[in-house]
Amino acid sequence: MSPAALVALLMNLVAVLALAGFFAGAGALFGPRSRHEGDADMPYETGLPPLSPGHERMTALYWRHAVLFVVFDVDLAFLLPFVLVRPRLDAAALAAITGFTVLIVFMLAYFWRKGALECR
Amino acid sequence: MILLPQAALAGGVLGALGLGLLRRPPALAVRALTFLAPLAALLLLPMTPAGLLPPLIAVDIKCLGWQLVIYAAALPLALRSSADDVEAALFLGVVLGMGLLTAAGNLPMLFLALEFMSLPAYLLVARAGTGEGGRRLEAAVKYFFAGALAGGLFLLGMALYYSQTHLLGPSPRPVGLLAQGGVTLMAAAALFKIGAAPLHWWLPDVYEAAVPEVTGFLSTAMKAAAVLFLMRVVQLVPSANFAPLLPWLGAASSLFAAVMALRQESLQRLLAYSSMAHAGLLVLGVGAWARMGQSPVAAAAILFYLGAYAFMSNGTFGFLAATGLRTRAQLKGYARRQPGLALAFAALLFCLGGVPPTGGFVAKLLVLWQAVAAELPGPAVLAALSALISLGYYLGLVRDLYFEEPVMESPAPGGACARILVLVCAFGALALGAAPLLLKDLAGGFWR
């Protein structure tokens, strides 16, 4: 990396920080002063008093599905570079990609069998 | 086919997962698969010539030698594994990852193999074994974070290296500062995996909490793979900036671990520090190897050390597994109850301590010899000093075994298979000491 590129990177960093800082701080600088009294600081929830604190733990029972989705999504994304490096689908390419796909289907069957796809 | 052993292991992984599809996986089939897949890999090794499958795979003579040690070191855990199909798949996955790591032809493949061998290992630490698993889970999480940090360092180093050299493999010419920094980061990742000071903080906890058999596997096969990983990183550039640091790091971590092991009460933690001391000596060996222009003789010395250590470490952790002993207090007077097992353990301790004429002595001698030949007298003296200190606890354990009165009940020893394993390991470690010159000549000729 040349010094000029480093300087450009640094300038970019400074610009980004300045811009983000401006957006974050502009309200406090130029906005109307708020009067902190009574219920003025209460979060607005369709005009009703909030039912519970905002920072609450939520159940995420779907986390396993999310992980499996990411895994299989990445697996299937491999089909794209395959098409690029093997534009002609000859016998060897077909065998290779069939093996790959069978492996993915096998893993899907495995997760299914182990109950990882159950909705709880 | 140059990847026959890896293919056998991949078949083993798929087979174990396939057995998991059954409603009730047959225990015998799972056990047989766990043992036969590494054994098949070991037996297929002589049939696999060196060769290239560019750009990802490069099988050289070092790859073959390391595969031999790794598969052999994995056999004890394969023999003692449970009938759990998930555990079998995880274990075979780790071994497959190691096999791929030895054959990695460029940096992305090296990274893939590193993750391939590491990720199942974290789960193996957490899952293997029975009873309360809280401590194992904690250790696995620690192991995971250390490993994730190492993986991140490696990726960052790889990116820096690539940004300057535009290479994904070794550079034929000297490289600039940025690429040198990248190589240093990659070496830090390797030192993390080896567990050399000052990147060792995860090691005692993980080695103590895991099941003894798994710790034996991690301290031998995993360590061998990590040492080869370090050597591949050193090979990236003609003269790596960090290479002169390696001998000192190795000697320092050896010394530190030897002193720390002196005051341990838990046997497994003591042996964990002992494993770290041995790893330090291996790092010193890698430093000597790098300094002597990557001499094949030094590489052979490192490989011999790994081979001998595979017997010693698997044997000692196998002893813990076979007897169920946890603390030094339980060890006191154990020789009166189980004379055969105690004798094997004492022999293994002498080997670990490097007392002549055992395999451990020959291994230490070869590596220190290489360090002296590489004109590294300082680290060599420090390492020898740490070996001397380590005798304090190895011989202390022997004294506990033979010359102390039993102070408490010890648990009943395990099955015949576990005991035979300890005896075989002790015999192997001793036998390696009996034929040093023959083996050294063999190794020398093999590498030239």
Which characteristics define this entry?
heterodimer; A: about 120 residues; mainly alpha; flat; B: about 450 residues; two-stranded antiparallel ribbon; 2 strands; about 0% strand; globular
Present the secondary structure layout.
The complex is a heterodimer of chains A (120) and B (448).
Chain A: H1 3-30, H2 63-77, H3 79-85, H4 91-113
Chain B: H1 4-20, H2 27-44, E1 51-53, E2 57-59, H3 61-80, H4 85-102, H5 107-127, H6 134-165, H7 177-194, H8 203-209, H9 212-234, H10 246-262, H11 267-291, H12 296-323, H13 328-331, H14 339-353, H15 359-373, H16 377-403, H17 416-434, H18 436-447
Antiparallel strand pairs in B: 1-2
Helix pairs in contact in B: 1-2, 1-4, 2-3, 2-4, 3-4, 3-9, 3-12, 4-5, 4-9, 5-6, 5-9, 6-7, 6-8, 7-9, 8-9, 8-11, 9-11, 9-12, 10-11, 10-16, 11-12, 11-15, 11-16, 12-14, 12-15, 12-17, 12-18, 14-16, 14-17, 15-16, 15-17
Could you walk me through the main structural features you see in this protein, from its secondary elements to its overall organization?
The complex is a heterodimer of chains A (120) and B (448). Chain A is mostly helical. Among the domains of chain A are: 1-30; 63-114. Chain A is built from four helices and no strands. Chain A has helices at 3-30, 63-77, 79-85, 91-113. The longest helix of chain A is centred in the N-terminal third of the chain and has 28 residues, at 3-30. Chain A is flat, with a radius of gyration of 27 Å. With 448 residues, chain B is mainly alpha-helical. Chain B has a domain at 244-448. Chain B is built from 18 helices and two strands. Chain B has a two-stranded antiparallel ribbon with strand order 1-2. In chain B, α6 packs across α8 and α11 (267-291) runs antiparallel to α16 (377-403). The chains are: A mainly alpha (120), B mainly alpha (448). Chain A binds chain B through residues 1, 106-107, 109-110, 113-114, and chain B through 14, 17-18, 20-21, 163-164, 178.
